[in-house]
Design brief:
By secondary structure, the chain is of the alpha/beta class. 36% of the residues lie in helices and 18% in strands. It has a single domain (15-318), classed as Ribonucleoside hydrolase-like (Inosine-uridine Nucleoside N-ribohydrolase, Chain A, Alpha-Beta Complex), CATH 3.90.245. A hairpin with a 2-residue loop joins strand 9 and strand 10. The longest helix is centred in the last third of the chain and has 17 residues, at 218-234.
Length: 322
């Protein structure tokens, strides 16, 4: 797919905006690469969150340059200097994960909120694959805007993981708990589709995927490079692959964010989405969720065929989407 936002017939392509904390867990980079090559869709903007002086925005711009996409606007959003993040969302060693020093791309936070608002105004799908701080700040600046946004959020823990997969608990739901106050505010003022942690832990980036990535262009090669480093640092093969029968032995990472983006883009092959009455409450500094009669009707992904998704992700990155 090339940029430009038009089908061959002249009608506009569906658009998607990513709000991401790219530069930590490598699934954000996996999501960005997938969205760029998704057929019949166009990435219209990227905002970053849990920023470190524009480092994450710099990483996004570098990734887009590798893909030949200089046309996509990128803006640095909420920074860790705001003091709202617990725990502190650190960045990994740049020398090991990236090919060299990547220039930061800082900017006024209002620029990021304006870019996000423009994407909502133009009807773009909004994929939240990091903490929800930017969304909360935008809702406070423009009350009611989240209520009309087609919002797909990676996060939530309204039910435990299925047998055979790790149930890591609500406290490990980073996108929500890193800035729980903002997450609770957003959940109360929007009508999102949640792609919860207990579903995304069924997905996997595998060591067996790396050969295809190394042959699939500069951005895919960067994913392969980072995957090897991440595998050495996080040891998911040992921690999860050997312990949970639902996961492949050679798992490197979960594909939390790519799954959320694919569902936002309309992928439904093996996906179940149900409307649940969901209560989200702040308790002892964490967002706790449960299904109850007095809850807010919320669209929640309740099942996914992770093997099908793994094929779709790899085929998309490798240029053979089927």
């Amino acid at each position: 797919m090339t940029g430009g936002g038009q089908r061959g017939s002249g009608s506009p392509l569906p658009e998607i905006h990513l709000d991401t904390d790219l530069g930590g867990d490598i699934d954000d980079l996996c999501a960005l690469a997938m969205v760029l090559k998704w057929p019949d869709a166009e990435l219209c903007g990227v905002t970053t969150v849990a920023e470190h002086g524009g480092k994450r925005a710099g990483y996004v711009r570098h990734a887009l340059e590798l893909a030949g996409r200089h046309d996509i606007p990128v803006a640095a959003g909420a920074d860790v200097a705001l003091g709202c993040y617990v725990p502190w969302p650190a960045l990994p060693d740049e020398d090991r994960y990236w090919p060299g020093p990547i220039p930061p791309a800082p900017g006024p936070i209002d620029d990021a909120l304006t870019l996000l608002e423009k994407s909502i105004d133009r009807g773009a799908i909004i994929a939240g694959i990091g903490p929800f701080t930017n969304f909360a700040l935008l809702e406070r600046r423009t009350p009611g805007i989240l209520g009309r946004a087609p919002l797909f959020l990676m996060g939530g823990h309204p039910f435990p993981a299925r047998s055979g997969f790790p149930d890591r608990g609500a406290e490990t739901d980073y996108n929500i708990q890193a800035d729980a106050v903002s997450a609770h505010f957003v959940l109360e003022r929007s009508s999102p589709t949640l792609v919860p942690l207990s579903i995304t832990v069924e997905t996997a980036l595998r060591r067996s995927d790396l050969a295809i990535l190394r042959a699939a262009g500069p951005l895919a090669q960067l994913i392969a490079r980072q995957a090897e480093v991440y595998a050495a640092d996080e040891r998911y093969e040992e921690r999860y692959g050997k312990s949970y029968p639902g996961l492949p032995d050679d798992i490197i990472n979960f594909q939390h964010d790519p799954l959320a983006c694919a569902i936002g883009l309309g992928w439904r092959d093996g996906v179940e989405i149900r409307e649940l009455s969901l209560v989200s409450e702040l308790e002892n500094g964490l967002v706790q969720q449960r299904v109850a009669e007095n809850g807010r009707p919320t669209r929640v992904v309740t099942r996914v065929d992770a093997s099908r998704f793994a094929d779709v992700w790899l085929q998309t990155i490798g240029g053979s989407f089927a």
